[in-house]
Amino acid sequence: MNGTDDSERELGGDDAVAAEYVLGTLGAEDRAAAARRNEEDAAFARLVDRWEVTLAPMGDAYAPIEPPVAVKQGLDRRLFANAATPTTAKAGLWQSLAFWRGLTVAALAALALYIALPLVSPPPPVAPAGRLVASLAPQQSDVHYFVVYDARAKDIGLSHVTGERASDRDFELWVIENNQPPQSIGVIPAGSNVHLAVSRDLQQKIASGAVFAISLEPKGGSPTGAPTGPVVAAGDLRDI
């Protein structure tokens, strides 16, 4: 990573926007603007490509599954719905940079869908949320994490963006449901992409629309079962 990239990573800006675009945590208007920049701005597109590579290991914990035929059929309909003729459409699309970028994004979205939504037949009466994401933004700190929660795998994947812990301190992840006291999910292991298992009772809290927060704690985590240090990052969960 060169000096410019390091500076952008520390300051946020375009680098943070690119990361949230890849993860899917941007709002509709911001995502549309980022998509346009991804087509038109080569520097921004490189940031998006880098984040796709950085966040890809978060899916390593999930076994691949065979995608449903309906997904490909749906992509075909969206990609070729406005084609005048098959021959004309193919000639124009194969030469279109926008098409290849769009196909890459669609393929990544489909891959995320394959990972997150295992096929079940018949479906259970009450299906938990498949996959949720959160951008845990800095709270009077420089700590920033991206989070992917997979309800079926009972797993939380965390991608470390910025902020370092001291050698005698740890980051601890908490789930906060409405006005209830925070409950610890666990100490966040050091590393760029890490995972935490989620207990059954915490799954229920997350499914009900809880918020994630990260506190700075003594080495090994809070000694009291409640946050003892400052909250350094927080964010709510969104459906993919």
Using the 3D structure, state the CATH architecture of the largest domain.
Sandwich
Query: What is the CATH superfamily classification of the largest domain?
Result: Immunoglobulins
User: Rounded to an integer, what's the Rg over CA atoms?
Assistant: 20 Å
CATH topology name of the largest domain, in short, is Immunoglobulin-like
User: What sort of overall outline do the alpha carbons produce when their principal axes are compared?
Assistant: globular
Count the domains. 3
- Span of the ends, CA to CA: 29 Å
Question: What structural class should be given to the helix and strand makeup?
Answer: alpha+beta
Q: What is the CATH class name of the largest domain?
A: Mainly Beta
Tally of separate helices? 8
DSSP strand tally: 9
In this structure, how is the largest beta sheet organized?
9 strands, antiparallel
Q: Give the oligomeric state of the chains in this entry, treating copies of one chain as homo and distinct chains as hetero.
A: single chain
Query: Into which percent range does the helicity of residues fall?
Result: 25-40%
Protein name: Anti-sigma-K factor RskA
Region (Disordered): 219-240
InterPro entries: Anti-sigma-K/W_factor, RskA_C
Transmembrane segments: 98-117
